Amino acid sequence: MHKKLSVQNLVYRLCVTGVLCCLFFALQAQEVQALKKQFNEYGQQTLQEKLYVHTDKNFYLAGEICWFKIYNVDAFFNKPLGISKVAYVEVLDKNNKPVLQAKVALKEGDGNGSLQLPFTLGSGNYMLRAYTRWMKNFSAAYFFEKPITVINTRKIYDGGALQQKAKYDIQFFPEGGNMVNGIQSKIAFRVVDQNGKGVSCSGAVVNDKTDTVSTYIALKFGMGSFLLTPERGRSYQALITLPDGNQVVQSLPAAYDKGYVMHLEKVNNQQLKITVRSLATDASSPAVYLFAHTRGAVKVAQSSGLKNGYAEFLIDQDQLGDGISHVTVFNADRQPVCERLFFKKPAQYLEIGASTDLPSYESRKKVTVRLSSTDQDNKPLPADMSMAVYRIDSLTMPDDLDISS
């Protein structure tokens, strides 16, 4: 009789456990749907624009005309947007003060204009900035910006005024946004000079006891990464050795005693693995949610329980859209706790071809250029384009930026 009751008790417990698991997963599914609903409602109520300004070149002499064309697109779908009718174009000096301003009419997402660069401008680097009135509702970080160089041959400078002390911008980025004591984090870094060019460097990370806990070396464009497991009660500094032999000391972001750390890595050419860690003391903690979107379109929404402070997600790269995707981790209260970006190279692109009517020309003879646009399968595609023609020399080089990037 006692043995029979034990079997019944075991069956009862298994049934209860199964019901609880079903309820747990049902609640997780409801939370995932709630997150998707909130995000979609936000996207429907918030329209965002993106501008791209194609200038005829990026190096000018004072007195020349800067010609440009403006493309206005929907930030979510990258399609021409005809909402705004006016774009504002500015040229900013090194103190971010506008030295030139203009209004440009937009029609169905297109606009064009020019700026006469006066002889009152001094030689130096300037920033061309463009935005619409609607874009001012959001952060200025989303305005279009492009560096241009102006040389004034009418103004003479002494040698001392042309010499500038090198300045460096050094930044550290914990993956996911923050570091947590006791959990290993991947720390990315970037070192650029005053012109925004990447700087080759190397260095080490030391704690407050001057013990070396990690070393690193910059790869391409002055960027790189290293691993670090911060300890409670310790502070950390990075020692950066620059190309000129000087050494810069900079403090790393402070680590938290509680929180979440995420890590994204490619498992193969098809899948991504996202791991989430937290300092959970119990065996099973509340669920975490993985949310990924590309330009406002929800691509991935999953949930998982933390087991011993660890959760793992596997997603197919095909689920993400082309370009930059935001990958965000939410806690059980639907609060974002970690986020990082992932870039997927576009599978489809526009092939632009150019041909001339003659192989060579005499001086001042008319040149006819024919443009064509096709997809990667050489099928013709309609395109709205602009073209700039200028001489390439030691000062004027091809522009690295284009509308795709």
Written overview of the protein:
The chain is mainly beta and 405 residues long. 12% of the residues lie in helices and 44% in strands. A five-stranded mixed sheet has the order 2-8-7-4-5, with no helix packed on it. A four-stranded antiparallel sheet has the order 12-11-14-15, with no helix packed on it. Strands 19-18-21-22 form a four-stranded antiparallel sheet, with helices on one face. A hairpin with a 2-residue loop joins strand 18 and strand 19. The longest helix is centred in the first third of the chain and has 44 residues. The radius of gyration is 28 Å and the shape is globular. The N terminus is likely disordered.
In short:
The chain is mostly beta strands. The protein contains two helices and 24 strands.
Low-confidence stretches: 1-5, 10-27, 158-162
Give the amount of beta strand, in percent: 35-45%
Radius of gyration: 28 Å
Write down the overall mean pLDDT.
86
Number of strands: 24
Number of separate helices: 2
Q: Given the C-alpha coordinates, what overall shape results? A: globular
Question: In oligomeric terms, what are we looking at?
Answer: single chain
* Secondary structural class: mainly beta
Largest sheet: 5 strands, mixed
Strand order of the largest sheet: 2-8-7-4-5
Q: What is the helix content?
A: 10-25%
Helix and strand run: HEEEEEEEEHEEEEEEEEEEEEEEEE
Terminal Cα span: 75 Å
